[in-house]
Amino acid sequence: MNFDLTEEQQMVRKLMRDFAEGEVAPGADERDRTKTFPVEIFEKMAKLNLMGLPFPEEYGGGGGDSISFAIAVEELSRVCASVGITYSAHVSLGCAPFYLFGTEEQKQEYLVPLCQGKSLGAFGLTEPQAGSDAGGTRTHAVREGDEWVINGSKCFITNASYAKFVALTTVTGRKEDGSPEITALIAPTDAEGFQVLDSYVKMGLHSSNTTELVLENVRVPADHVLGKIGEGFKQFLITLDGGRIGIGAMALGIAQGAYESALRYARERVQFGRSISKFQVIQHKLADMAMQIELARNMVYKAAWLKDQGRKFTKEASMAKLYASETAMRVCDQAVQIHGGYGYMHDYKVERFFRDAKLTEIGEGTSEIQRMVIAREIGC
């Protein structure tokens, strides 16, 4: 086994590290305070051809791989998880469904502008009564002539305020066994009857965009089906497999950032006449943090590698997302503890990391759902 990154992956890491340190980190605390969405950051990323990093150049992408995407999300999240989740959702939930299931015409019309950064990507799946149970989708669409008429609502949707169109799951009928026929439809966000509401007050990720979608008799052409009618449920499961690599990488980045802050503080903080990094209790905390982060990184990169090889990666993506997210929470908790009272203060950043980390245990399938997926994959 070769654990070395390729030359291209090393270049992506350097580029993203420099970009994150130079462009993302300086305003991260202020954006968190003011809840300001960093439009200018994504405009700069578009100019660097990063918005479609893992997609083919023929669609405006960067021609990279899933490991490069994971590295990019990790480096962004290391300094600002709000930017990390925005980018991860754009690629894995916004772009990926069009690349995986779209017709050639749909790829040209939707994937190309996404990869060019002309629109942010968003995916309408979660509903008030259908979170982990996506089979409980109530948003429905009725065929009327050469149009679909969509009614319903979605919640906790990332990026929709900055998306020109959204792929969303709808019930378009019933199967023979009575279960809902779920279909993904493409809807322009400026369509009549389509409202994007940005009114959530969140624990963390303050400068990311989390919205509610309300659709009242939204009409879209009949050819706005993404993939095949009745296969939306299957399509979103495939999409989430890739998305879990992104959330795992985000959690990894948050953990790395919190660990680095704690290590730096421990070296500088003097108590009882010496640096607290010289106390064994602090050394053991930092050693555990470093070990858990390294294990999480290996798991996230392995899942991404399997995806790049065209091999099945459902189990590994769930394991990576589950372990990395729980590692992020443990590491951030200990980072705050090492900082003592200062860890509770905004200026020391670790409290922001701690608040942001919690979402990684919820988004793209909760930790409980990941364990269900893993249990199913191992034959339970």
UniProtKB/TrEMBL annotation:
UniProt domain Acyl-CoA oxidase/dehydrogenase middle: residue ranges: 122-218
Pfam families on file: Acyl-CoA_dh_1, Acyl-CoA_dh_M, Acyl-CoA_dh_N
Keyword set includes Methyltransferase: no
Keywords attached to this entry: FAD, Flavoprotein, Oxidoreductase
InterPro entries: Acyl-CoA_DH_CS, Acyl-CoA_Oxase/DH_mid-dom, Acyl-CoA_Oxase/DH_mid-dom_sf, AcylCo_DH-like_C, AcylCo_DH/oxidase_C, AcylCoA_DH/ox_N, AcylCoA_DH/ox_N_sf, AcylCoA_DH/oxidase_NM_dom_sf
GO MF term (any one): acyl-CoA dehydrogenase activity
Catalytic activity: a 2,3-saturated acyl-CoA + A = a 2,3-dehydroacyl-CoA + AH2
Lineage: superkingdom: Bacteria
Cofactor: FAD
Residue ranges of domain Acyl-CoA dehydrogenase/oxidase C-terminal in the record: 230-378
The UniProt record lists the keyword Transferase: no
Residue span, Acyl-CoA dehydrogenase/oxidase N-terminal domain: 6-118
Family stated for the protein in its record: Belongs to the acyl-CoA dehydrogenase family.
Protein name per its UniProtKB record: Acyl-CoA dehydrogenase
Organism: Melghirimyces thermohalophilus
Phylogenetic placement of the source organism: Bacteria, Bacillati, Bacillota, Bacilli, Bacillales
